[in-house]
């Protein structure tokens, strides 16, 4: 493995961490409804836990209402219960075969809680990126120890990985601030 491979590998893994963080942010509720909001809610289906999107059609009725239409009639009650018991603070109502999930307006207190959730997710993403930096640096030090590269090459590699880490952390910070602004917008 060369220094270029180490850097390319670290860059790819950091990009994946940022993508995973973006996905995590998309789950945090703002004032608007979107079908992806229910992706993390699991429902029991013949003995196994599945996301709601695998047992029902999830669509938007309007900007503040999600519609869930189970594929099997008996699943309606289980889906409604799973949504109610999730930590999303939603109160679904059943209308025949269709479950309507209205999005309540966010209170100031709930908005502040959600910004804390976004910040914590950002910190977790930063920790993941720093762990990737550590792994890349250890690989470079191992190459130096095995006398496959010079000390100058190792120093250059450490600097490049640090710059990559700094850029990735700045990107994560921008995403967190953007999400906070979105949550706090009334």
Briefly say what this structure is:
Keywords: Cytoplasm, Protein biosynthesis. This protein is of the alpha+beta class. 58% of the residues lie in helices and 16% in strands.
Low-confidence region ranges: none
Count every beta strand, where a strand is a DSSP E run of 2 or more residues: 6
Count of DSSP-assigned helices? 4
- CATH classification, class level of the largest domain: Mainly Alpha
Main location: cytoplasm
GO molecular function: ribosomal large subunit binding
Family: Belongs to the RRF family.
Domain Ribosome recycling factor: 21-184
Describe this structure in words.
The structure is a single chain. With 186 residues, the chain is an alpha+beta fold. The chain has two domains: 3-27 and 107-184, Ribosome-recycling factor (Topoisomerase I, Chain A, domain 4, Orthogonal Bundle); 35-102, Gyrase A, domain 2 (2-Layer Sandwich), CATH 3.30.1360. The protein is 58% helix and 16% strand. It has four helices and six strands, in the order αββββαββαα. It has helices at residues 3-27, 75-85, 108-145, 151-184; strands spanning 42-45, 48-51, 56-62, 65-70, 93-95, 98-102. The mean pLDDT is 87.
Please render the helix and strand layout as text.
Blueprint: H1 3-27, E1 42-45, E2 48-51, E3 56-62, E4 65-70, H2 75-85, E5 93-95, E6 98-102, H3 108-145, H4 151-184
Antiparallel strand pairs: 1-2, 3-4, 4-6, 5-6
Subcellular location: Cytoplasm
Pfam family, one: RRF
Main location: cytoplasm
